[in-house]
Every structure is written in structure tokens, then in C-alpha cells.
Amino acid sequence: MNERQDTTTSHAGPVTVIGLGPMGQAMTRTLLTAGHPVTVWNRTASRADGLVAEGAALAPTPQDAVEASGLVILSLTDYRAMYDILGNATASLAGRTLVNLSSDTPERTREAEAWAASHGAAFLTGGVMVPAPMVGTEASYVYYSGRAEALDGHRAPLTLLGTPKYLGEDPGLAQMMYQAQLTVFLTTLSALMHATAMLGAAGMAAKEALPELLATADSVGAILKAGEENPGTALDAGEHPGDLSTVTMMGATADHILETSESLGLDLALPLAVQSHYLHAIKNGHGGDNWTRIIDSIRAPQ
């Protein structure tokens, strides 16, 4: 029996979920299905109607929601919302664990951990790396950082939501990983739409263009792993061997993409940003290095 299955049969203690957007609702249903008593609270109480019909308890106030469980999961727009909602419930936080799965900056996450500690609560930062419909499935995983004992003390219910991937005690690390992953995701989405617009300007319908473009997106990982057992090893060592692809070669391609986009009357923000990375590397004398050399100007913008 795997870890996900084990957790559905033990330690089915009470859990509170605050914030009932699609993610909060998905987490609540997953916990209810596993037999956990779940108390919920949301600014718009009607969002809880379906969950209450399925067995959740709706708390009348955030304080009541906090006091219902030792584990309080927050699924909110940002960290400011946590302070707004729990500001009048701080006296009830002592001895409880707050798991904030909301998105914000790493620095605000660290500030939140200090705030929680000042009220006697343990704090975990989390980043859910799947969309709401996939919560609770074998494909779901969640990055966590903060006190290891806070995760260990609630590992069973948290594993139901997604396989926990613990990054360390710095509460900002999970948020940093979440932001880094979404940097790849959002940039890829913008690139796909830009490429679709390019082909559309040439008369190709999106339903014809996207399958071809998605095949390229799917192949990127395999291309980057080719010839390197652990991608990133050379980068960590500061090595950028230009035996396969060079800054100059990739930069020329970036130039052509920009020229084509301009001729089609498309927005140039994305191709200009990409081109700038290669221009900086060439300007600094690294045209013969591997394309990974562009990380220099990203790390230290000029």
C-alpha cells in the first residue's frame, strides 16, 4: 500500500480549511472523503453550501474555525488576507499549526512565520503544484518549508492533498520554489500564445498550430536532459561549454523571432525580453559559450 493510501486509514483528526475557492473546496472534499471532520469558513458563506451538504461544518466566525482544529489550512488570495481574517482570532492560535497554501512573496512568508510564532502557532508555507481538480490524486504534490516538526505532526492529512516535498526550515523556500515553477509555467503559456499569434498571422488556425507547438513544449525537458545525467550540474560549476549550441547561434534566432513578430504587428514584449538576454551575453564576450550563459545577466542585470 502506498503512502497516499496509508494516510486515508489513520489519524483522521479534525482539520479546518479557511478559503473556499476552487482549491479550498477541492482540499475540503479530499479530507472529507478520507474521513476527517472538516470545519470551513469563507467570507462568502454561500460557497460552503455544497461542502456542508457533503459533511463539512461551517464555522460562524474565523475564531470558531480556528478553535475547531489543531490543523488550520489557509487557501487565500494572498498573505494579507490571512491577517485580515485571523486578526481577531489571534488569541486562539496558540498551540495550533497554520499551513498557508496561498501565493505571495518569500519575504512576506517569512514575516508571516514570525507573526504566527508571536501568537504561539507553528507555521508551514506550502505551494500546491497542481490545479484544483488534481488535488488528492497520485499526481498531486505540495512543496513545504518551515519547521520540520510542524509537517511531521500533520503529515497524514497533508499527504492526502498531495505528496509533501519538504525543502527546509526557511519558510520562504516553498514560496520561492512555487514562484520559480510558475515562472516556467507562465512564461511557457505566454510563449505558446505568442507563437500561436505568429502562425495565425500566416493563416494557420489555432486548432492546427497548438498541437505542433505543444509537441515542442513537451520535448523541452528531454532536450535539456540530453547528454547530462543531472541537468544543472555544469551550471552549478559555472561551466558553459558551447559545443552544442552557443549564445551567438541562439541570439541570432532571437533576432529573427523579433523581426518576424515586428513585421506581423505583434506585441514585442516577450521577444524583446528574450533577445536582451543574448545581447548582454554577447556584449560581455560570451558569444561562444553555451546558451546557459544568459543566466549571468539574469542574476546581475546591467
Primary descriptors:
disordered N terminus; Rossmann fold; alpha/beta; 302 residues; N-(1-d-carboxylethyl)-l-norvaline Dehydrogenase, domain 2; 8-stranded mixed sheet; 2 domains; elongated
Describe this structure in words.
α9 (about 170-200) crosses α10 and α12 runs antiparallel to α13. An 8-stranded mixed β-sheet has the order 3-2-1-4-5-6-7-8, with helices on both faces. About 50% of the residues lie in helices and about 10% in strands. The chain is elongated and about 60 Å long. The longest helix is centred in the middle third of the chain and has 30 residues, at about 170-200. The chain folds into 2 domains: about 5-170, NAD(P)-binding Rossmann-like Domain (Rossmann fold), CATH 3.40.50; about 175-300, N-(1-d-carboxylethyl)-l-norvaline Dehydrogenase, domain 2. The chain has about 300 residues and is of the alpha/beta class.
CATH topology of the largest domain: Rossmann fold
What can be said about the biggest beta sheet?
Answer: 8 strands, mixed
- Runs with pLDDT <50, length 5+? 1-10
Query: In CATH terms, what is the architecture of the largest domain?
Result: 3-Layer(aba) Sandwich
Mean pLDDT: 93
CATH domain class of the largest domain: Alpha Beta
Number of strands: 8
Instruction: Order the strands across the largest sheet as they lie in space.
Output: 3-2-1-4-5-6-7-8
N- to C-terminal separation?
54 Å
Q: How many helices?
A: 14
Q: What is the 3D shape?
A: elongated
